[in-house]
Amino acid sequence: MRFLLDTHAAIRCECHLVREGGDKKNRREDMKYRITPHLIELTYEASLKSFWRKNALKKFLRGCNISEYYLNTWNEEETKRNFLDRLFMEFQKSDKGKRPVFDIAVALSEQETFPDLKNWEDSEEKIREARIAVSELRKFLTMQTKEIENEETKEKRRKEAAFERTKIQREITDKQKLKEEIEKLSLKIGTQEAGYKFQKWFYSLLDFCEIDNKRPYVQNGRQIDGALTLEGTTFLIELKFTSSQSDATDVDSMKGKIDKMADNTMGIVVSMSGYSSVAIKQASGPKTPLLLLDASHLFLYLTGGMEFGDIIARVKRHASQTGESYLSVSDFSK
Fold first, then answer.
1. Model pTM?
2. Predicted confidence band at 172 (pLDDT cuts at 50, 70, 90)?
3. In a 3-state reduction of DSSP, which class is residue 220?
């Protein structure tokens, strides 16, 4: 294929080469493409062989958004090949100018018939050559599209893997921070200040675990330390950050709050210092609405032994099967 330079200044300006707007341009605006020398060569050959008359080729190029200004530079003496030489030379002068090559290539590849090649003495040969040229162009576009899609898929997977690695590392770091915070806070257990900070820390843990929750609120004059919802069950929360074990009065207080709620409401008491045997017995019983958690349950999650939602579900399942509100972490495997 040969290319002839045109010194006409207006033709050199790519703003005169492609018409702004146009349906085909809009349709293909988001299509992926990669303009290679081989694609340009195939597009040139298919353009040359798909049309015999100048007017037919000009009409086709006009439909591909080649500007009327540029098409009017095609004079009567200039051959079809020479005009395409000039046109494709202009396409290659900049990356922006290569865009029309793809539009023309796609339009050519969509051809099924060649009306401009009919009714000539050698129509059969002309159409055969045009079909070959278009077929080669179509195969190349299909191959290129698959290559680009494969590259995009690989890149997407690479980014997803990198995101997951970052997410896992962030979770490990954030969970470690939660662990360090509660260990530091435990040095002040029993103080009012530590109690407030423990409440804030606990809801940070629920947020980190993406467990639906509600911060402390007042209901019918009673202070509720908050609530969480897990697997369709709503649990009122009672947080105890005292230096001594929670006793039967703490259990009775929580039961009184639950009794005033809907039938499907349960309660979770989280006591960092654990429970007296009387408290556990008081909380337990047929259809008990209470689950008792202590520091060991929190640290089981913080050390990566089990998800916090699964810990609650395990204690709840035990309560449903036995009526016992408390299940020691050491007995989880039983």
1. 0.53
2. low
3. coil
